[in-house]
Amino acid sequence: MVCLGNICRSPLAEGILKSKVDTSKIEVRSAGTGGWHVGELPDPRSIEVAQQHGLDITDQRGKQFSTYDFEIYDHIFVMDTSNYRDVVKLATSPSEKEKVQLILDEIYPGEKRDVPDPYHGGDEGFEKVYQMLDAACEKIATRL
Ligand code: 4NP
């Protein structure tokens, strides 16, 4: 799960997908394309909205996406088209590029919809993001 800062959207996506799959069989991790928040806890608003839905994401710490992640993971879900461009730039082969997918394509195929960045908005943005990611992760979990 990849977003820009790895403190708002992708930690939520990681927590939500982990809650829907067998984590002894499927490894779910998140990262940001930027490195500003490496080592930090998720944003308090993401922690709170996760808690409201019964998920604890306080074990997560910020990481930056690296080209090595293409070797480790089979699927790379990005939150928006800007993340898509940044991640695809790091791919070193067509098969690596094919691993990258907009997460909302799961529920709105081909529409190129973004999960909006809630960082500069209010708390209600985080609940909306949660709902979008929950629907997308439900699809992913049944497909994997
Ligand atoms: P995220 O939100 O990509 O959903 O984690 C952001 C968090 C921090 C920043 C940008 C986006 N930032 O510029 O620090």
Core attributes:
144 residues; mainly alpha; Rossmann fold; two-stranded parallel ribbon; two-stranded parallel sheet; 41% helix; globular; binds 4-nitrophenyl phosphate
Structural account:
With 144 residues, the chain is mainly α. The chain has a single domain, classed as Rossmann fold (3-Layer(aba) Sandwich), CATH 3.40.50. It contains 6 helices and 4 strands. It has helices at 9-20, 44-52, 69-72, 81-88, 94-98, 123-143; strands at 2-3, 31-32, 76-78, 100-102. The strands form 2 sheets. Strands 1-2 form a two-stranded parallel ribbon. Helix 1 runs parallel beside helix 6 and helix 2 (44-52) packs across helix 6. The structure holds 4-nitrophenyl phosphate. 4-nitrophenyl phosphate binds at residues 3-9, 32, 36, 117, 119. The site of 4-nitrophenyl phosphate has 11 residues, from loops.
